[in-house]
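Thread: quick sanity check before group meeting

JM: Hey all, I'm pulling together slides for Thursday and realized we never actually wrote out the predicted structure for the chain we discussed last week. Dropping the sequence here so it's in one place. If anyone has concerns about the input, flag it before I start.
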Amino acid sequence: VNQTRMVALRVREQLLPQREFTPLITACLQMNQTQANTQITRLSQMDSTELPAQMVAKVNRQLAAVSDHLAELAHTIETVIAQTTHEGGGSGDSAAHSDDCHVQATPKDLS
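JM (edit): ok, ran it. Output follows.
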């Protein structure tokens, strides 16, 4: 996982000044999503009472943060696509739908 992150960071540094999207960054994201989803599935099958409370809280905080970042990314991509394709009226409905689907963690969930 660390190697994948390093590759993604290097690619990002190289591409920041460019005005094009790259399949490599998308592939890194998809690979990291797959790995995270696999571990989330494994974690959800465990009895969380067997884990230290601090570790559960840490994972919950990270899951909430990543969820927020993914929601922001989805909204940004949706906005870019809407602006590029000039779908002004239709994008508002989609963006509202995206916001409705995003669940933010409450402080109680993170403790």
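AS: nice. Helices lie at 2-15, 23-44, 53-85, 88-101. The two ends are 26 Å apart (CA to CA).
JM: adding both to the slides.
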